[in-house]
Amino acid sequence: MGEGDRARDEAASLLGVEHLEVHFPIRSGILFDRRVGYVHAVDDVSFALREGETLGIVGESGSGKTTLIRAMVRLLDPTGGRVSFRGTDITTAGRGQLGPVRREMQMVFQDPQASLNPRKRVGQILATPLRLVGVDDGAEIERRSRELLAQVGLNPEHLGRFPHEFSGGQRQRIGIARALAMEPRLIVLDEPVSALDVSIQAQVINLLEDLQESLGLTYVFVAHDLSIVRHIADRVAVMYVGKVVEMAPTDRLYVKPIHPYTAALLSAIPIPDPRENRARARHVLEGEPPNPVSPPSGCRFHTRCPRATQLCRTVEPPLAEYPGGHLAACHHPLNVTAAEIAGATRSETSPLAAGEELPQAA
């Protein structure tokens, strides 16, 4: 995809992320006044999020998923790159400029017990965002709060209870209700069901899908459980050590992954049928992800990839576009033909863009 195409997609999108970077400084010395390096939490991530879709973000712990979404909603300041919402650049926007934007961008956190104030009743928790959107009358606040609880499947009579009086799934529903109180267009969900029982996870996922359909919401859904992401996401981005190594429509990515890392993640999904589970091909990864303080040269996955060659160790693969809107950054891609490799569109800034052939695996 060319720079012009990306610009047009971003202009038509709800949220645009362009070459986003988040680097955390490492300091040393008695007063911690000497910078000795950086943690490369997010490196050169770009995508456009269309209104009404769900983008899933997956990857191992430490891959940069949470840092990416926090920078997207400006809970963290990006080190480089650009974030735009409805075509407006918010990368360096101040608190006053972010106020109206944050009303349309809300976040649901991983641990509902930690994200809800234990000293406040549910009615008080929901009243705060309602006042921020201009609801001042006490009776109207109570009416809206009851509607919000009913909308997420809770008893409206529970406004007077404290968060500790609810189960984990109910607390997460309260967190979703709090986000809905701001009448957002985009909700960013940071592993919203990972702390819940499996049966409760399904209920919360179904609730999110119903709310999206009825309210026209857009989601960014972060998770480490790929089976859940497959159920809810329209597109999936796979992150590894701060970079997006593959992004594709869900049905394409789960059937024909192009990047070896994605294939390894998918092969780890448990299958209920023991015979099918034993018969399927496994992509077992050895070792640990590299240190984000000093990521390896070339492809960051080459230290664990069974298909790695000398090219992978020295040249960083570009994020190339294959048929069906399938993006992958791999010198030796899986599940693609020679013609698709030859026709893959590569970034103009890539070292392979000047005419060098993208090699095929032996």
Write the layout of secondary structure elements.
Layout (H helix, E strand, L loop, with lengths): L2 H10 L2 E14 L5 E16 L4 E5 L6 H8 L7 E6 L2 E2 L5 H10 E4 L3 H4 L6 H11 L5 H14 L16 H13 L5 E5 L7 H18 L2 E5 L3 H7 L2 E6 L2 E7 H6 L4 H8 L6 H6 L30 H5 L5 E3 L3 E3 L9 H6 L19
Parallel strand pairs: 3-8, 3-9, 6-7, 7-8
Antiparallel strand pairs: 1-2, 1-4, 4-5, 9-10, 10-12, 11-12
Please explain how this structure is put together.
- With 362 residues, the protein is an alpha/beta fold.
- It is built from 14 helices and twelve strands.
- The chain has an eight-stranded mixed sheet, sandwiched between helices. A four-stranded antiparallel sheet has the order 2-1-4-5.
- β9 and β10 (243-249) form a beta hairpin.
- α5 packs parallel to α7.
- The chain is globular, with a radius of gyration of 22 Å.
- It starts with a helix and ends in a 19-residue tail after the last helix.
- Mean pLDDT is 88; it is low at 347-362.
Low-confidence blocks of residues: 347-362
Q: H/E order of the elements?
A: HEEEHEEHEHHHHEHEHEEHHHHEEH
* Structural class by sheet pairing and helices: alpha/beta
Share of helical residues: 25-40%
The amount of beta strand, in percent, is 15-25%
Shape: globular
**Major beta sheet summary:** 8 strands, mixed
Compact description:
The chain is an alpha/beta fold and 362 residues long. The chain contains 14 helices and twelve strands. Strand 4 (80-85) and strand 5 (88-89) form a beta hairpin.
